[in-house]
């Protein structure tokens, strides 16, 4: 009885990752308005967060760090987005990205962080650009696609 259920789950996961694997074969192009990213032949919409949805992105990023057994705390995000991991399935996962302040053992650092909610992967890199600039948001998108999408 468990075998058909496992086969169905494996099929869903295969469909969800096939689109991502195919998409990563092509070049990445970020829209000028930063509202989408084109990877290969697929367009992935970016849903930029504000207010209460930014708090939700912050909590999701914290959840990803906790899932990966990191003691780092997300204390503040001033930019954040969500992006589906697939454009062709009914059950896509979601990538979350944020330009945040993280605190580890009392040391605070501003970083770009992403989290794949389906797989659980997290990636971080130091923020180098001025807070809230288009360049910082562009680097955040690049991090999310390069290190969290399709891993």
Features:
151 residues; alpha+beta; 5-stranded antiparallel sheet; 3-stranded antiparallel sheet; 3 helices; 35% helix
Q: Topology, please?
A:
Elements: H1 2-23, E1 28-30, E2 36-39, E3 42-45, E4 47-48, H2 52-67, E5 73-84, E6 94-104, E7 107-116, E8 122-126, H3 134-148
Antiparallel strand pairs: 1-2, 2-3, 4-5, 5-6, 6-7, 7-8
By DSSP, the count of extended strands is 8
- Assign an overall shape: globular
Q: Please state the CA-atom Rg, rounded to the nearest Å.
A: 16 Å
The helicity comes to: 25-40%
Total helical segments:
3
Mean pLDDT: 82
Biggest beta-sheet profile: 5 strands, antiparallel
The percent range for strand residues is 25-35%
Quickly give the structural class. alpha+beta
> Which blocks of ≥5 consecutive residues have pLDDT under 50?
1-23
Distance between the termini: 30 Å
In which order are the strands of the major sheet placed?
4-5-6-7-8
Tell me the series of helices and strands, N- to C-terminal. Answer: HEEEEHEEEEH
